[in-house]
Specification:
Layout: H1 3-9, H2 16-19, E1 24-28, E2 31-34, E3 39-41, H3 47-52, H4 57-68, H5 81-95
Antiparallel strand pairs: 1-2, 2-3
Length: 104
């Protein structure tokens, strides 16, 4: 993949990639890897990767299982079993032990 594809089809809002024109292809743990095989320590501080690293084995395994079971990927704000399980676990494991009265 060449950088000119992004320059041609993405808006001018992008900023980081202009100063670091590298195409990344994969990531594991705290590292991201470019097309040329060069590995970089990830300091992007992105949402999921910040907490767990990129592609942790357990998370990847659970996601694959969920997909193989045809789990719902997008349900707007409808009730889904997966969302219910998440809300219960969040309440029981995080919010209640810290006496936090929050809604998601």
């Amino acid at each position: 993949m060449r950088v000119d594809v992004f320059q041609q089809y993405e808006s001018e809002v992008r900023s980081y990639c202009r100063s670091f024109p590298t195409v990344f292809t994969k990531a594991k743990g705290s590292y991201i890897e470019a097309q040329d095989g060069q590995r970089y320590l990830d300091f992007f501080a992105g949402a999921g990767a910040l907490n767990f690293g990129h592609n942790p084995d357990l998370v990847k395994q659970r996601l694959i299982e969920y997909l193989q079971e045809d789990g719902i990927l997008h349900g707007l704000d409808m009730y889904t079993d997966a969302k219910g399980q998440f809300l219960q676990a969040l309440q029981e494991q995080i919010l209640q032990p810290k006496s936090l009265d929050y809604r998601v």
